[in-house]
TrEMBL record:
Keyword terms, alphabetized: Membrane, Transmembrane, Transmembrane helix
Organism: Wolinella succinogenes (strain ATCC 29543 / DSM 1740 / CCUG 13145 / JCM 31913 / LMG 7466 / NCTC 11488 / FDC 602W)
Organism ancestry: Bacteria, Pseudomonadati, Campylobacterota, Epsilonproteobacteria, Campylobacterales
Record's protein name: Uncharacterized protein
Transmembrane segments: 12-36, 48-63, 70-89, 101-118, 139-159, 179-196
């Protein structure tokens, strides 16, 4: 088979994989809103799926940190996503003290930073290498959806202007949480792809 056709096939496969993350995110959101009649609170399927995906991301990154090539950057990334998980679970920490999730996140961030930068030159080298990969670009897209798009499209003032008298908070929440879930799924695919590739390089 022509090499160009093979490369096109792989590119098409990647596109379909990315498309599946969007379909899955919307599917879970529809289950929540249409079937379960949820207002997308902390106990919603969408929120629980976000937290489960974050746990998977952290697990994959920790496993990757056991390999030789990306030890430091994997620990730093695992710490970053652990902080995001703590933020998602803020309602649990609020049972103890409101806003206390920040303290736990700071502890995790300091531990991850100390471990990651234990060998600073190596950490920066690994980070530079990672930014050259396709997985980095995909992870960046996921983080863009989580940290930027979901916040911009989730602004209450925007939906009040669009829906006027028909404004319902669930409309805003649906867009915001749906984009967050899509971003987390993109991030999961990115770290999984990178882990598989690094594992193959490590075993060869």
């Amino acid at each position: 088979m022509n090499k160009d056709w093979i490369e096109f096939g792989f590119a098409l496969g990647r596109f379909l994989l990315f498309a599946c993350t969007a379909v899955l995110a919307v599917g879970i959101l529809m289950l929540d809103v249409v079937i379960f009649d949820s207002s997308l609170g902390e106990a919603s399927l969408t929120e629980i799926t976000q937290e489960a995906v974050l746990v998977l991301i952290i697990g994959v990154l920790y496993a990757q940190s056991r390999l030789e090539n990306y030890t430091r950057v994997s620990l730093l990334m695992a710490g970053f996503f652990a902080c995001m998980l703590i933020r998602e679970l803020d309602f649990l920490f609020d049972e103890w003290r409101h806003g206390s999730w920040v303290y736990f996140a700071l502890v995790i961030a300091m531990i991850a930073s100390c471990k990651g930068f234990l060998d600073a030159p190596r950490a920066w080298k690994e980070l530079a290498e990672y930014t050259k990969t396709q997985e980095y670009e995909m992870l960046s897209m996921g983080l863009m959806a989580i940290l930027v798009l979901s916040r911009l499209f989730g602004m209450g003032i925007l939906w009040q202007a669009i829906l006027e008298e028909g404004y319902a908070r669930v409309a805003k929440n649906s867009v915001e949480e749906g984009l967050e879930l899509w971003g987390y799924l993109l991030a999961l695919v990115a770290v999984l792809r990178h882990y598989v590739r690094v594992s193959k390089d490590h075993s060869s």
